[in-house]
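look at this one:
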Amino acid sequence: MAAQPIAFDRGAAALWQSLQKLHTRASLLMVTAHPDDEDGGMLTYESRGQGVRATLLTLNRAEGGANVMTSDYFDAMGLLRTEELLAADRYYGTQQFFTRVCDYGFSKTKEESLEKWGHDRVLADVVRVVRMTRPLVITSVFVGGRTDGHGNHQLAGQMAQEAFKAAGDPTIFPDQLKDGLRPWKPLKDYASVPFAPVTDKGIFDYADGKYYPAEFRNYTDGTVIKGKLSAAVEIPEGEYNPLLGLTYAQVSRLGLGQQKSQNGGTGLPPAEEETSSYHRFGSLVSVPEKESSFFDGIDVSLAGIASLAQGGDSAFLTQALSRINSLVEKALSDFSAQHTESVAATLASGLQATNDLLDKVGTSDLTADSKSDVSEELRIKQTQFANALAESLGLSALATLAPEKEPTGPFARFFRNPESFQVTIPGQQFWVKVHVTNPTGIPVQLDSVVLEAPPGQQWKIDPASQSGGTLKGNQSVDVRFSVQAAQGVPSTRPYFTRPDIEQPYYDVQDSTFLSLPTSPYPLSTRLHFSLNGVPFEISQVVQSVKRVTGRGTILEPLIVGPAISVSMAPQAGIVLLNAKSFDLTVTVHSNVKGPATGSVKLDVPPGWTAPREEFSTAKDGEDQSLKFHVTPARIEEKGYTITAVATYDGRDYKEGYHTVGYPGLRPYNLYRPSVYRTTGVDVKVAPGMNV
């Protein structure tokens, strides 16, 4: 989604990390409760240092937490923390998922979390992500016991262990199988050894300030462990990576520093020895008490993919995987930081061999389950090969909104990507430019460039596809598209809502996006390349462009919004039983690209009156505040609702949005109905008192 990768994901460093990922099928899932609970150092070490496909599942979005950066709280805070964690994930090198539950504030017990969230609601979402991502290992920061403190923490630890056992059972949450997911059995489960020591008094629960017996329940097998938890694995987070130029702990701390609402921003810690200890709660493979890694006893080589084939002749699979592994090892051996393109041909051969093997698996006599399991792993390798191939060639692409006519003249190159609008509205016409560069001396064929809108939405894109021809050494090409947003296209907004903050979980509006951090952005470009006849592709979300004094050019994903946003201030209040009138303010925000005129009325309770007001804005992004004088009829001691309705171009608008974020963090919009809720109150004032 970001226009440019962070420094650790560019150039030779990015390619070396991709080669590491190609050389293993190791994968893990970490389960935590809130953003910033994660062991970022471990995730960074595994993902960036060992090539592990790492995933982070965070139960909630910290809606009940503090905020030192903005005035956003509750659901707006949840969106803010979501975007901060996504920014942190870029440093950890992880893919992010969430469940549906909400943070309702500090919880002293696991029982409270279970009561509010519901055991099966949480477990179903965790199992769903396990079945989606299919990790070999599950980990958690929490053990599911008193040492975790916060009740949400305790439940996260318990759910990680229960999902380890449940995800492979087809009788548990069978509706997920109807949605196309398949059972998956992780092989090992770990959790961080608690930092709180076991003392003569037992173990300390900081949530309630009490000591408890030193006992830990193992939810993978139902046993109880007495005394201190042993460390099966030690993760060297303080290890230095010369290509990254920092230790893994330092890289992860840069990620943690993205979560500014909690810490105000952090600095880079000094490099030093640092380890993280993990206790093993479950294993389906034979391993010693002390291990060198999470993956001891598991064949995480590419040849290990063949272990997923049960039934049928799999000899072809072993032979082909050996060939693919040889190509990956050749690329590792031939890697040059100064000439990353030297391994491009080898990677193209590896991608072609993976494509061929996928075809053979599909026509083989392996069982249907085996075909699915093996193909899933090979598709991951397919994507990794394509990424590595693009990185080896240094290919770059930038898709931005563009003016109808590009700047010309001797200084035109200083005015590339001029400032654009930030929000497109239904039916709007605009231009998109895709800039593609091949900086190496190896010719690459740009077979096609396409713009993609969400399925089922009738965007008009002209032309449907463009060819860039052959890109030779250090050659660039620009392709342009004329775009018209679909009429009735939905606004870019969270796919999850709740009626009020009392409900401790979200209702999901579109199950297609369940478990994802946010709804996808509406417009992206996909570029189809080929090298030596082997096709591969890269993609990017279309970016808007703005200029900010001091920060310079800022690229942010293009979003869809309504032509008119309408909001009320305040959103709630009281009205005295003897009130003759009171005032309300309605703010109209225009996303219309030019002047916009319309009207706003208040839908008031029967007998109440408020005059209709006219609005007129001159340009995109302009606000206008309207004052309404409301005259109530007989007021009773009960609740009343007033809705502001804006009319523009024959359509009514009854909601507005608030942009969540702060400078340096990608913004996201939270929508609210344009409603004022009030209650009649009988207020007695003592004689002679002025209120």
The chain has four domains: 1-24+305-394, 26-300, 396-560, 564-681.
